[in-house]
Protein 1
Amino acid sequence: MKKILYLLLFVNASSILIAKTVYDPIATLVAVGPMGEGNEAAAKAWPKAAALGAEALPELLAAMDKASGIGQNWLRAAVDTIVQRTLKEGKKLPTKELNDFLANTKRIPASRRLAFELIQKVSPKRAAKLIPGFIDDPAPELRRDAVALIIEKAVGESNEDSACSLYEKALAAARDVDQIELTAEALREKNRVVDLPKIMGFLMRWKVIGPFDNTDREGFNVPYPPEKKIDFSATYDGKNDKVKWTDFSTSDQFGKVDINLEYGELKQVVAYAHNTFQLFEARELQFRLGCKNAWKVWLNGKLLFARDEYHRGQRIDQYVFSAKLKKGKNEILVKFCQNEQEQSWTKQWEFQLRLTDASGTAVLAGNRLPTPTAPATKR
Amino acid sequence: MKNLFTIYIILILTLSLTNADWTSFRGSAGNGFGNEPGLPTKLDGNKSIAWKVELPGRGLSSPVVVGNKIFLTASSGPRQERLHVIAVNAENGETSWERQFQATGRTVCHSKTCVAAPTAVSNGKVVVAQFSSNDVFCLDLDGNLKWVRGLTLDYPNAANSLGMSSSPIIADGVFVTQVENDADSFSAGLDLGTGKTLWRKSRPKGANWTSPTVLKGAKGEELAVLQSGKGLLVVEPKTGKDRWNYAEGASTIPSTTVMGDSLFIPSNGLTAVKSREDGRSHTQLWRANKLAPGTASPVVSGDKIYVLNKANVLTSANPSNGELGWRLRLKGPFSGSPVANKTHFYVFSENGLGQVVDLTGDEGKVVSTVDLKETILCTPAISGNALYLRSDAHLWKFGG
C-alpha cells in the first residue's frame, strides 16, 4: 500500500514536472495582457505558433476565447501567417474542422467570424451557402451577412407586401445600426409603422433636472446634489434659479434626449437625467451611449464611465460599456454638460442611451411604457 | 588601399539605399523631401503609372518604403474594426504579406477620415503601425509580429470622436506617439524592442491631429518634437524629459517641418525657430503671417520652403528669412501634404487631381496633371525614383 502511494506521488510529481517543461506557445499568446505585459514572451512564442501546420488552426481559434483583445491579435497574426503559407504551398485548410468550429455557437463571435472568413477564402461557394443560416446567429458579425442577403432580396422584390415582409424580417434580425436604419427607412417609405426606439432599446422617458453651472467647463467635476442623492421632491440652487426634477420624454426615433427643448439653448450648463430600469433578473448589459457633450453615467450610484469631450461628433453606440444590473429597480443617472462654444454646430446639448445584451439585441425594462409619440415637454 | 576602396563603395551603396527609403509620414526627414532626381515629371494616366493595385480597406495613411517593400495600413468592416497591415512588392505591386487585426479601441470617426489615418513608421528593421483606435502593432519586415499595444484599452479615455490621425515617429530607437485629445491627452515613448512604456506624459487637453517630427540636437542626438495647440515641446525620446518649449501656440492640423537644425512651425502664420547651442532653449529666426499653411504641412526642396494655404495658393519662401517668393494657385481642396524632389513639387487634391509643379524657373509652373477620379486624402511617398499614392481603394506607383 505504501509503495502504491509512493508510486502515485511519483507519477503526480512527474506530470507536474512535464506540465512545467512542455512549452505551449499558444498559451503564451493568450496570456498577453494590458500595458504590454507578456509581449516579450509572446514575441518568442509567436514564431513557434506561426510555424504550426494548418491542422492547428481550430486550436488557435479556440484559444481566442480565453484571450484579451491584445492576445487575440497575437493569435490572429499567427492564423494569417499559417493560412498564407499553407495556401502558397498549395496545401489545403481543414475546412471540415473550421466548419465544425463555426457551428459551435458557444465560441466567441470574433473567432467564429474568423473561421467563416477562412472558409470563405478557400471555398467561397460553400461559405455563401452558410450565410442564410446566420440569420439568428448570436454573433452579430455573422448575422450581418444574412441580413444583407435579405435586404438585397427586398430591394429586388417588385411586390410591395413581399418586399415589406422581407424588410421586416431583416429589421428583426439586424443588430448593426446601419442595417437597422436602412430597413426601418425602407418600411417607413412604404407607410409601415416601425417602433424603432423599442426595437433598438432606447430609453425614452426620464426625469431631468438643471441647469447647474458649467462655467469654464468646471461643472463636469462638481458633484451637484443629484450625484449625492436622488430625491425627486427636492429643490436645489441651479445656475440662475432654483431647479427641481421634471418629467421629460422624447419621441425621437433614435432616443435623443434634447434638453434644449426643456431649458432653451443655454451655454456653460449641466443637466442630469434619471431613469428607473426594472429587470426581472440580474444580468450584465451593455450601455450604448451617443453624446457630443461631456458626460458621466452612474448605475445604482456607481460611476460607470465619464468623458470630458465637447462637440467632436455624436453617433449611436458611440460609447459601449458593460455593467451588471440587479434584479428589480436599477437607477441610471446621466450627467451631460454644455460648454462655452458659440458655433452653430455646438448648439446640441443631448444624449441617446440604449441598453442591449452583448450581441446588440435590445433589452427592454420591465417597467417600459409605450414609445412616446410626441415630446411630453417642449419649451 | 583596395580595402579602403571597398569600404568606400559599400558606404556609397548603403547611403544610397538609405536615401531611397521613405520611412515615415512626409519621409524619413519629416519634411516631404525625397532626393530622387528621376521622379516622373509627367503624371500621365497610361504612361507614368507602373502599376495600380486594389487595397483591402480604406485609409488616409501614407505608404512607407523600405528597400523593395511598401508598407501600408487599411481598415475595413462595418465599423472599420478590422485593421490591416500590408507589405507590397515595390516592383510589381503584389502583396508580400498581410496581417489582419481587430481594433481594441474606439473606431468612431468623422466620415471623411477613417481608422487607418496615421502613417506607419520604420527604422529599416521593423515597421510599427498605429491606428485611430490607438492599436499599435510592431512587425519585422517579413511580417513577424514583435509586440502589440492597445493604448485605448490601457487608457480608456484616450480617443477623439472625430478620429485620431497623428503619425508616430521613431527617434533614438524609441517609438514616440502623440495620443492627444480632449479627455486623456498624452504622449508616450515605447521601447521599440518590446513595446513597453518608457515614459508617458500628460499633454494639453484638446484634439490634435499633428504629427511629431525628429530633430537633430547639437550633438547629433535625435530629439522628438511634439506639436499641439499650445506650441512645440522638444523632448528626449528615451526619457520624455523636456529639452525646450515654444509656447506661442501652433496649429492642430498641419505639422512642423524640419530643415537641418531649423523648425518651421505652423504658428502665427509660419514661425521658424532653431535650437540654441546649449540644446535647452531656442531662437526665433523669423515669423511670416502670410505663410499660414492650410491643412497640408509645408515641404522643403533645395533652398526653399513651400506652403499651401487655405485658398490653395502655393507660396515659395526663403527659409533663412521668411521672404516670400512666387505664388501659384493650384486646384484644391487639399487634405494630404505635398512632397518634392529638387526640381518638382507633387500634390494631390481631395478630388483626385494630381498636380506637378516645376520648381526650377523664376515662377512655379504646373507642368502636368492627372485625374485619378478617386478621393485622395493621403500624402504621397517617394522612393527609388517612384511616387506612391493611395486612396480608399487603390495603391498606385508612378514611375520607378
Protein 2
Amino acid sequence: MTVSRTALRPPSNRFDPRTVPWWRVQWLITTAVPVVPLAVLGLLIPPARLWLLVPAAAILVLGLAAALALPVWWHRVHRWEVTDTAVYTLTGYFWRTWRIAPMSRIQTVDTTQGPVQRSFRLSTVVVTTASSAGAVKLEGLDQEEAAALAERLTELTDATPGDAT
Amino acid sequence: MTELQPNSIGPDADTGEAAAPVDTGELWRRLHRDGLKVTALYMAGVMIGAGVPAAIAIGSGPGLLIALAFVVPGAALVIGAVVGYEAIRLRVTRYHVTDLRMEMHTGVLFKTRRSLMRERIRSVDLTANPLERVFGLAKVKVGTGETGSGSGSTSEQTLTLDSVDRDEAERLRTELLRRAAVDTGDDREQRLATWEPGWLKYAPLSFLTPMLAGAAVGGTFQVADWFGKGGLPVEIVGNLVEDHGPWTVLGLGLVGLLVLGAVASLALQGEAWWGHRLDREPGGTLRVRRGLLVSRSLSLEEERIRGIEIVEPLGVRSAGAGRLDVVAIGLKTDEQGSDLSTLVPAAPLPAVASAAEAVIGPVDCDLTVHPRTARTRRLRWAVIAVVILAIAATVPHLLWQLPALLSAAIVLAAVLSSAFSLWTAFDSYRSLGHALTARHLISRRGSTRRATVHLDRSGIIGWRITQSVFQQRMGLMTLDATTAAGKGHYAVIDADEHEILDFADEAVPDLLRPFLVRSPE
C-alpha cells in the first residue's frame, strides 16, 4: 500500500444560507401533504377520529423535527466547487457521495428554479455528461450566482473540443 | 424476387418534395413487396395457432360446425386487415441514402419522416426469420448509438426497414458503415472468434434452465386454466404423492423439471448462437453473425467501443467458462435478457480471453486484492441473511401445525439458502479486484454473476465516489467510473479508502488531483 494517506478534501463552497429556510419549507410542504387530509378527515369522521389523528400527529411531529434539524445539518455537510477543469460536489453524511465531472466531458448545463426556490431567490444548476449516471446537481445557489456560474460553465465547455463521450 | 433492386423508383415528384434538400441523385427506394407474403403467411400461422384452441373450446359446447362458422371468418377478417395494413405501409414507405443523411418516410395513419445523419450512424443490424429467409428478405435496423437522456430517445434514434431484399440489406450495411475504409490498407476481414458446437454444453448451466423450468410449470397451469380445469395439475400431483410417497415425487419432479429446462435452454441458445462468428471488417467495424433459424447480423463501429466485460454467471463459471460482452455507446447492456451486447456466448475462458484480446488488446493482468474488511462486511450481510432465514423458517412452525413434507421443505430451503449466502460472502470477496493497464481500468466483482469489466480509461467521463458510515469505519470506499457506454457506470466496490484514490488519480490523470490531499502516515 502507499506510504502517504491520500484523502479527498471537501469542496470549498457551502451553499447559500437561504437554502436552510428553503429546505424547511420543502419539508413542511412534504409533511402537510399527508397530515392535512388526515386531520381534516379525522375532524369530519368522529368514529375514526383516533385512527386518523394519531398518525397525523406522529407524522407532524417527525416532519417538524426534520424541518428544524435536517436543513441546518445539510447546510453544513453539502458542499460544491467549480474549478477550471471540473465540477466537484459532496453530499450526504451517512452515505457520503463525492461527484466529479470534468469540464471537457460536460454536455449540458441547465439552470432550473421551482416556485418555492424562486421565492427564496435560489436556483439549481444541473451539469450533465454523456453518462446516464454522471449528472451533478448544485441545488441551492443564489440565482444571480447560478446564472453567472452557468454562463461560465457553458463558456468553458464550449472551449473544449470533442463530442464528450 | 431475385432481381437486385426491384423496387427502385425515380425521384418522387408526385408528393411535392419541394422542401427536401437537393440530393445527389440517389434514388428513393421502396421496401420489398414480398414482405406482404411473409406477413400473410405469418398471420395465417398465428391464426391457426390461436384458432384451433378457440375452435376446440367453442366446439366442445355447441358443436364443431358452429365453432368453425365463427372462427374461420374471424380469422380471415384479421388476416385481411393486417395484410391490408401492411400493403399500405409497404406502398407508403420510402427511404434513401444521400451523402449526408439517410431518410425514411413512412406511416399509414400518421406520417413520420425520420432522418439520420450519416456520420452519426454507428450500427447496422440485419435479422431474418425463417419465413423471411425463404423469400430472401432481411430486416435492417440502423442505429446512431445515441442514448440521449429521455426514455424514448433510443427508439427515436433508430430507423428500421422491414423488410428489404437480402442483397440490398447487405449493400446498405456496407455503404452506411463504409467511411474510414479508405485509409486502412488491410481490406480483408479478420476472424476474431468462431463458435464451436461443443460450447453448447454450457447452455444448460445458464440461469435460463431454472427460469424455463418455472415457465413450464406456469404454462401447465395456464393451459389447464384455459380448459376450465385450473385445479387439475394440483390434483394429479396430490394423487401421485399418495401413490408413491412425497420424497419420490419431489425428487423426480425436480429432476424432471430441470431436465426439461435444460433441454429448452439448449434449444434456445442453440438457435440463437448456431454458426456464430465474430469478425473485424475493414473500416473498423465489428460484426457478429449468428442464428440457426433466425439469422442475425450485428455490426458495431469500433469507434464507439469503450471496453469489454467478461461475464461469468455462477453455473457457467463452475464449468470454467464465461461470455464476452462489449461495453459500447448506445448499447444498453443492463436490460434483462438482451444479448445484443454479447460478442461471444458462454465459452471456455481461454477462448473468451483470446477474443477479448483481439477486440481491445492485452487483457491479462494481476488484480489488486481488496482489504480483509471487505470480507468482514460481506460476512456480516450473510449473517444477517441467515438470522432472517432462521426466523422465517421458525415462525410458521410456531404458528401452525405443518404437514411433514412442507415442514421438511421449509427447513431444507432455509438451511441451503443459509449455506449459500455464507459461501457467497467468501466467494464475492474472492472476486473483488481492480487494476490498471496501459489503456484500461479493470474491475472485477460479483459471485452469482461475476463480471470483469475492462473500461477504456479515455472513456471515463467522471467519478462518483461513495462511502457509507459502515464503510468509513472499515476504511473502505467505492469508486464508480461514469461513462457514456454500456450501463453508464462501472464500480470498484469496497476498496481501500486511500489506495483507491491514488488508483483513480492514476487512471485519469489530472481529474482528481486538485481535490486530493496527501498526508504522511
